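Consortium newsletter contribution from the modelling node. Members have asked for a concrete example of what our holo predictions look like. Here is one, prepared for the iron/sulfur cluster complex that several groups have been discussing at recent meetings.
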Amino acid sequence: MAYQRVEIPREQIEEQEAVCARLAARFSAEGRRPVAMVDTYGCQQNESDSERIRGYLAEMGCDFTDDAFAADIIVINTCAVREHAEQRVLGNVGALNHSKKARPGQIICLCGCMVQQPHIAEKVKYSYPIVNLTFGPHQLWRFPALLEQVLTKKKRVFAVEPSDGTVTEGEPRRRDGGIKAWLSIMYGCNNFCTYCVVPYVRGRERSRRPEEIIAEAEALVKAGYQDITLLGQNVNSYGKDLDCGTDFAELLRRVNDIPGKFVLRFMTSHPKDATEKLFQTMAACEKCAHHIHLPVQAGNNRVLAAMNRGYTAEQYLEKVAMARALMPDLVLTTDIIVGFPGETNAEFEDTLRLVETVRYDSMFTFIYSPRVGTRAAALPDPMTRAEKQVNFDRLLELSNRISGEKHAAYLGKTVEVLVDGENRDERYPLTSRTHSGRLVHLQGDRSQIGHFVRAQITESATWALFGKIVP
Ligand code: 5AD
Ligand code: SF4
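And here is the predicted structure:
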């Protein structure tokens, strides 16, 4: 059955804000200002969702902490992409037994992709009784009502019904820092790569309306944000569900045209949907970072087909060549999975060859992790974990060598960076990013934070550059 867009009416969001006001009054009648902790795992979409949760909590009158022992309300926003993240979450939830004992009445909430999986929701229900509220990504917009149920009915609440997903507008949002902002433009994914759980837990692709996105971007620029990242699981299919005549390239241009000084980024792009029009638009938009995160996942065509990626290694390389021809200074990053079920050592060599050919600026590499309900989880997987680790280590070594070489090429150059924070390193007390997203540790003082400056690169390492501010 075709997916139908479901937009949550504004009145329903207003109702949630009314619940927040009710809870704020309730807390204040109890003579306290509640303290909340929000812990986020996984991708930037989850960071963005945590900003929505903090927005609601702030409307309830909460202060924020990073200390579980100081918190009245704990929200753990989880990730399901790999097993490792799930194990960490379960370990950390178990450890909350101590804070809950020390702080009776502490409310523990578990949300996000991991708990949207039925087998995990069951596990939480039966094995983690300290969790008061469990809700999936589709229910986040009604977090206040769910929390109110926990508080008034004094019983555990589970809101993890399956859904193709909804689109909400007008929720409060609390962003931290004031310099960099995530801006979600769409949710969900239709691609069903065979290893990936995301389409099962985040639902089908649905785009926000362009006028809503532009209004939010304008508000961000007005509020002084200088680094805006448009977010989606697959931004290149933006707008396909809307019939509004705006595709991703046009959206990018419209955000670029907002007056003001800021850097415009986006992620993630799917190679099969990355078009010449997109690369041309990136090249033409003066605020758009010349950085593209283009996950290749594997370099062998049989493996790519088994992953259902929708492109061959040759087609991928053509796109890279096209993008580099239009943007010679392009920074290219990628994701790669090692040990997909049935991947042979010879097939893995194709991945190494592709990486040698492309020479990524940096790479995120993962050992395949079977996910319940995905097609790949049912495939024979004869290679041992130890063998996969050997391949993984080889890939990492190659990746580090190339990143190091690319970084070394910056020595002596002067680049414009946005100073975005502080660093513990006394010699380089500031952190900054080049327009293409490279980390530069800088000499200088706090007053530079939030400013664009020119930095001369004086040292380089595998993961970062080091430099000093020059006039
Ligand atoms: N196992 C390992 N890595 C995975 N990814 C997604 N699903 C899995 C999995 N089951 C990786 C992909 C994706 C990134 C966000 O996580 O490389 O691009
Ligand atoms: Fe997962 Fe593939 Fe969708 Fe990315 S494009 S979220 S890897 S299914």
